[in-house]
Design a protein that fits this description.
Blueprint (H helix, E strand, L loop, with lengths): L51 E12 L2 E12 L3 E5 L6 H7 L10 E9 L2 E2 L7 H7 E4 L11 H11 L5 H14 L3 H4 L12 H14 L4 E5 L7 H14 L4 E5 L3 H7 L2 E6 L2 E7 H6 L4 H7 L5
Parallel strand pairs: 3-8, 3-9, 6-7, 7-8
Antiparallel strand pairs: 1-2, 1-4, 4-5, 9-10
Helix pairs in contact: 3-4, 3-6, 4-6, 6-7
């Protein structure tokens, strides 16, 4: 296996250092389509009801006087892919960011209502937002590898900043994360090259590897394929299918065909409100609300 180079303070500029909290103990790595809707297989069922990753009740989000989210309630099932669709400005990205409290980074942001993550109150007293963001990773619209770091350093930066120095563990976590991101075979001989030397699609998968290196419980994806070509998009969509075996994934997308291909459930939002939420096949093939039907059929948006 390739040797991981150590990350020292001189390797990173201050602007490259992310805010990272405690690191989870090492865990074993899990073993690892058109508008005729062919959704992914539903999560495996057990004797009881499915586990709920997010329980959102009567959520409203404000930026100053502007209300971006209006009384949204829904439950997101664990170990599945949920897509949030809707026209620009409908509030879908704000809803996504509320799931790991990133919307709070915008001055004047406030909320009413509640969100519970795997039973815990996301906004409860004494809850540290940095710990929330470690449990709930985020993949952004534009890939953002740290420009001064190598491929290996990009993947391991969170662990190293939290004091992990065991090279055996770091080497194992590096390979595990890159394999889970379907990138290992493409970069294993070039781990010391800059992360920005990769193609756009590879950079996005590198960012996914960086997110899962810290072993979050949930992954949020904000239009992760909007800047990618069709081939790179296909690889990321295949990766989403694979990761959903071990992670809960919530994805915002403008691409309705993509929502139909990758998600188990779909939420349609319009003007800050949740219009309809249900199984992806039902939303696209037999929507209950006229607004949903108009949107998925392309009559507006």
């Amino acid at each position: 296996m390739n040797q991981v180079i150590s990350i020292t303070p001189s390797t990173m500029s201050d602007r490259d250092k992310p805010a990272v909290d405690a690191v989870a103990a090492p865990t074993p790595v899990p073993t690892m389509k058109p508008m005729a809707v062919v959704p992914p297989s539903a999560p495996a069922t057990t004797a009881g009801p499915p586990q709920i990753a997010f329980d959102i009740q009567d959520l409203s989000i404000f930026y100053g006087a502007h209300q971006a989210i209006k009384n949204v309630s829904l439950q997101i099932t664990a170990h599945s892919v949920t897509a949030i669709i809707g026209p620009s400005g409908c509030g879908k990205s704000t809803l996504l960011r509320s799931l790991n409290r990133m919307h709070e980074l915008t001055p004047g942001a406030r909320h009413t209502g509640s969100i519970r993550i795997l039973g815990d109150d996301l906004y409860g007293p004494g809850i540290d937002p940095t710990v929330v963001r470690r449990r709930v990773g985020m993949i952004f619209q534009k890939s953002n590898p740290f420009p001064t770091l190598t491929i290996a350093e990009n993947v391991l930066v969170g662990l190293r900043l939290n004091g992990v120095r065991d090279k055996v563990f770091l080497n194992r976590r590096l390979e595990e994360s890159l394999r889970m991101a379907a990138l290992w075979d493409e970069v294993k001989d070039h781990l010391h090259r800059p992360g920005t030397s990769l193609s756009g699609g590879q950079q996005q998968r590198l960012c996914i590897a960086r997110a899962i290196a810290n072993r979050p419980e949930i992954l949020l994806m904000d239009e992760p394929c909007s800047a990618l070509d069709p081939i790179a998009t296909g690889k990321v969509e295949e990766l989403i299918h694979e990761l959903s075996r071990d992670y809960t994934i919530v994805i915002v997308t403008h691409n309705m065909q993509q929502a139909a291909r990758v998600s188990n459930k779909t939420a349609f939002m319009y003007m800050g409100k949740l219009v309809e939420y249900g199984e992806t096949e039902q939303i696209f093939m037999n929507p209950k609300d006229p607004q949903t039907e108009a949107y998925v059929s392309g009559r507006f948006g």
